[in-house]
Amino acid sequence: MRIERRFTKENQDAYASIDFHRTTSEIRNPDGSVVFSLDNVEVPTTWSQVASDVIAQKYFRKAGLSDDLVKIQEDDVPEFLWCSAPRDGEQVKPNGEYLGETSAKQVFNRLAGAWAYWGWKGGMFDSETDARSYFDEMRYMLAAQMTAPNSPQWFNTGLHWAYGIDGPSQGHHYVDYQTGVLTASNSSYEHPQPHACFIQSVTDDLVNEGGIMDLWVREARLFKYGSGTGTNFSSVRGSQESLAGGGKSSGLMSFLKIGDRAAGAIKSGGTTRRAAKMVICDVDHPDVEEFIGWKVKEEQKVASLVAGSKLHELKLNEIFAAIRAWDGKEEDAFDPKANAGLKNAIKSAKKVMIPETYVYRVLQYAKQGYASIEFPTYDTDWDSEAYNTVAGQNSNNSVRVTDSFLKAVENDDDWELIRRTDGKVSKTIKAKELWEDIGHAAWACADPGVQYHDTINAWHTCPADGEIRGSNPCSEYMFLDDTACNLASMNLLKFYADGEFDADAYMHATRLWTITLETSVMMAQFPSKAIAQGSYDYRTLGLGYANIGGLLMNMGYSYDSDEGRSMCAALTAVMTGVSYATSAEMAKELGPFPGYKKNAQHMLRVMRNHKRAALGKKAGYEGLEVKPIPLDHKNCPDRNLIKLAESAWEEAVTLGEQHGYRNAQVSVIAPTGTIGLVMDCDTTGIEPDFALVKFKKLAGGGYFKIINQSVPAALAKLGYGTAQSEEIISYAVGHGTMGNAPDINHTTLIGHGFGQEQLDKIESALPSAFDIRFVFNQWTLGADFCNGTLGIPEEQLNDPAFDLLSHLGFSKKQVEAANHHVCGTMTLEGAPHLKEEHYSVFDCANQCGRIGKRYLSVDSHITMMAAAQSFISGAISKTINMPNDATIEDCQAAYELSWSLGVKANALYRDGSKLSQPLSSALIDDEDEDDFEETLRDTPAGDRAQVLAERIVEKVIIKEVRKQARERLPERRKGYTQKANVGGHKVYLRTGEYQDGKIGEIFIDMHKEGAGFRAMMNNFAIAVSVGLQYGVPLEEFVDAFTFTRFDPAGMVQGNDSIKSATSILDYIFRELAISYLDRTDLAHVQPEGESFDTLGRGVEEGKSNIQQANEDNLAMIKQVSSTGYLRKRLPQELMVLQGGGQGNLFSGETAVQAATGTDSAVAVAAQPAAVMPQLDDRAKAKMQGYEGDACGDCGNYTLVRNGTCMKCNTCGGTSGCS
Fold first, then answer.
1. What is the mean pLDDT of the chain?
2. Residue from 266, 191, 192, 53 nearest 1216 by CA
């Protein structure tokens, strides 16, 4: 074939127009430890640090490169394509150290060189000049980030050709491209494994070839080389079907759990990617009900593990605490009959079903001198031990549904589940009930997805060889069992410049990559004989694109618009049309794929249907029950693409009729996880963007906040001037300086004692901050400055809930105003100058920032898929994002809409459907309850503790405070500490009083409570204290907060008057009311006794030991005793105790107070205090637009949704995507 040059020039280096530089690649864990580091990495200067890190960490060959290579002459191969090998045959340096790749050029050269080498040997090029042109053009496109192949190509291709790397066979096979003979590989690298996507069959057999256990071995071969696989397991008999040797089968689910565990154990040493697999079950399988609910139950198991482990630790250590608190005879400390506290702790443990074995074990530990127990607790992180313990976490699950099933759902008909051994009916159920189960499972845990069997097979190019029953892990590759597909994607934004889309360059790239993927089929080896033969026979390819979301935003069109959908459809139509035309060209030179002859009429029918869709026809389709969405000629913003789409499909059909096709399929739209990072794509695959503000990684470590690179171009396209655009962008990302910030700026800070040194420290930290409150701390400013100049005690500084800006007297409104100015809103909603009709252009998959409300609808995702599906050979990998408040019916409706529009598969992800996403418990006031519930529900999960605290502040300060001066507490104040256990949670209450005994502040702390709730209670205590100091009567708080209901709640231990509470707040204000207001009506047990002798004196009980107090004694007592404390209050005639007092009943156990001062919490009356709970890493990640989970490879909280998987924007790791 003839290869033209478009990006390079003859007799000039392929990289002549691309500048390269040396940089350092380093990936760190959140704790600062280095995961990966490499100095002197050579990459193009235009590449981001993330792209540089990904190619260095993921795709550079780390070992086995000789420093002394020689060319191996081959007479029928051009010299520039000769293979290389170590001169001495060893892949090590003389001193025994291995070499690795250090330059991106090495990677580009080995990829393009291997493709050109095998292409030459396979007769792909007309001349050496064409081969050289191909070699240079491919290298340029890789370096310019225009295109990228799937990850296995980067891992494996060219290692033998470029470096002579080799190893023993791993059981692979290939079909010889010259003889057509199936051959066993004798090398692990000569024929690389470049394919990412496999579909494998399984028979209803346990141990023989092709059976269940054999499948796990075949999967392992794929996972080792970074590939993914999918299998339809519907041929395996159900759990109640008979076995040939007698008895009943253990069923489908038992084997799926084995395969899931095997897949989870294979991680390729962290050098490639996690195991990725798809498990499919037909909707008429006898075990389909159990399959649908599988992951729902596994999620419930995770919840039980997490809650149960933490409850064990809490209750078992309460037993230790009761033993430590005992002050009698040592031997009685371990006897529940003698130790009442121990008896209560044991009863409490039994009430929550702690096994008696563990209770007795703790008692035995205590007798042996142990003081506590470290019971292993679990969390809900997606890669945590809890998730690793349960099954089903290493695969995507899908149910295959047919048109007949969906019509049965519509008509509320019965549905039969069919036995696999004899075809008889196993069970009859209502189709609608099964459909509801599918919707519920997707709503509850995002699995299973749905694949539309009849729609898939209506576009099948080779039905004479059987039905399509399976797919790859991400559902974009759908073809016959035991076949493979290698993928590549084009970065659409690289073809858009100066307001125009370069369609000629796009078509040129499509043609070259079709040739590349075909060459990859010829050179590849496969994990089984069947796949090797199937891939040779059908030669399926997977060309696609990425960054459609970024392209549309650059062009000024909304993702959810007729123009956006038409543009996407036109680009897809051109790509697939040109690719099929190229396939027909190759068929002319090399012959059609071996399976073409008996499928020719079927394939040509499919080609004609594609052509009709490209022509915009609404009728006349052949053999389609569900009609495709035709190309929208009217709304396409690029008229040239419409003409090219029409001509491309005219040519594809005409050439196919003449020569046939070299490939049964040519296109898919993949999730482009890691390769999307290598190409610096704003958006992956067909996805929209996930955030408008990104955090750019810096070469020296850390991040810098930047606007999505598509936003400035979009604003210019929409007609905004430079000055206006700068203001709009600054509104989103912030100004990065306190200089001219409202309320909190250099001037006001200097007034608080800040010097130039402190201002410089703050300014240097602001560019990477997303909240100014996390800059104002002792680590930025220095402990000496905070302690000395600002006078903040060390214990306050170390309190995670301490807010320095609040301490300085700034209100919440002032802090927020400064925050928006400095750190930005991370959204464009409400930006100056931006017209509301343009908001939709910047809509993302999720709400943006704290104040953003807009996000793309469920239907917009589906209609975009439908627009592209009409021109895709395979299918589309995409996540359909749903809000947290979506219902089960919404999930069913999304599935039904997808089916009606001709989409082949659908994967839903409802926000919060996974336990790994944190949600806060709700504290709802009776007043305006409905409004507040709505506010809380619409608040991002990471911000809910803050909203709750603000609500409390609003209630206390805004509604109750009259304008009056604030009454300061004395520097040394009296009060009391009360410890209790409410519903199994330790609560410490500490009060502070004025000199006349009136309460002026409270501290609340909860032992081992969750960070968000504990911080919220600390902030609540600040709010109440501020209210008290401004004159709000304690009675107002008591009336407002007693009888409130939320968890934790239940029985109260450790308080002599309160025995149960409906919430923590109910308990707190009952206690304060009884102690300071004498509200005995709120006590369950009346306080008794009015003198100190009620404490009890053992054998001296009942004997008089009092005398009349003199004035000196009375003055001394008033210095240390609370005169406002009314429970056990002092009598009018004070008595003085004679003799020694009792010892400390709670030795070794000290209440940890919330060291959050209140003297300076609020500067102005009638304004809420600026209280901000400390956010954990997960909550911070959510605020930045990430999923909130930690990456399993590098530990950073930078995971984003990517098709049906997740990818890490720090290290490029994925949860299974290509």
1. 84
2. 266
Please give the C-alpha separations between residue 181 and each of 174, 201, 270, 723, in angstroms, as whole numbers: 8, 22, 35, 67
Query: Which of 799, 748, 804, 798 has the alpha carbon at shortest distance from 772?
Result: 804
Whether 1004 contacts 1154, CB under 8 Å = yes
pLDDT of residue 158: 95
Catalytic residues: 472, 474, 476
How far is residue 826's CA from residue 731's CA, in Å, rounded to a whole number?
Answer: 8
Q: In Å, how far from its chain's centre is CA 382?
A: 8
- Number of residues in the chain: 1218
Q: DSSP letters of 1149-1165?
A: ----------TTS-SST
How far is residue 1080's CA from residue 1064's CA, in Å, rounded to a whole number? 19
pLDDT at 1058 over 60: yes
> From CA 584, how far away is CA 567, in angstroms rounded?
26
| Termini Cα distance of the chain | 30
Query: Cα–Cα distance between 88 and 71 in angstroms, integer?
Result: 12
Rounded (10°) CA dihedral 193, 195, 197, 202: -40
Average pLDDT for residues 978-1001, to the nearest whole number?
A: 87
Q: Are strands 276-282 and 1135-1137 parallel, antiparallel or unpaired?
A: unpaired
Q: What is the mean pLDDT of residues 825-833?
A: 92
Is the Cα dihedral 703, 704, 707, 712 positive or negative? negative
Q: Which two tokens stand for residue 434?
A: 């099964």
CA dist 825 and 814 (Å) reads 15
**Residue 451 phi/psi, 5° resolution?**
-115, 135
Model confidence at 1152, pLDDT cuts 50, 70, 90, reads very low
Name the most confidently modeled range: 47-51, 866-870, 1161-1165: 866-870
Number of other residues whose CB lies within 10 A of the CB of residue 1107: 11
Can you give the three-state secondary structure of 938-995, one letter per residue? HCCHHHHHHHHHHHHHHHHHHHHCCCCCCCCCCCCCCCCEEEEEECCEEEEEEEEECC
Full 3-state SS string of 10-72: CCCCCCCCCCEEEEEEEEECCCCCEEEEEEEEEEECCCCHHHHHHHHHHHCCCCCECCCEEEE
- Calpha distance 886→590 (Å, rounded): 53
Q: Of 46, 43, 38, which Cα lies nearest the Cα of 21?
A: 43
What is the mean pLDDT of the segment spanning 1052-1064?
A: 86
Tell me which residue of 169, 187, 154, 168 sits closest to 59, measured CA to CA. 154
Q: Using one digit for the tens of pLDDT, what is the confidence trace for 25-51?
A: 887 766 667 777 888 999 999 998 889
DSSP-derived secondary structure for 826-870: SS-TT-TT--GGGGGGG--SS--TTT------HHHHHHHHHHHHT
Q: Is 424 helix (H, G, I), strand (E, B) or coil?
A: coil
Contact predicate 511/578, CB 8 Å: yes
CA–CA distances in Å: residue 603 to residues 451, 482, 654, 911, 1044: 22, 20, 13, 40, 68
Confidence (pLDDT) at 662? 98
For the chain, the C-alpha Rg in angstroms (whole number) is 35
Three-state SS at 802: coil
Single-letter amino acid, residue 862 = I
* pLDDT at residue 461 greater than cutoff 70: yes
Q: Where is average pLDDT lowest: 389-393, 460-464, 698-702, 712-716?
A: 698-702
Structure tokens at 128: 């050496």
Paired tokens of 983: 């519903």
Structure tokens at 862: 């589906």
DSSP 167: -
User: Quick check: 219 and 552 in contact, CB under 8 A?
Assistant: no
**pTM, whole model, 2 decimals?**
0.75
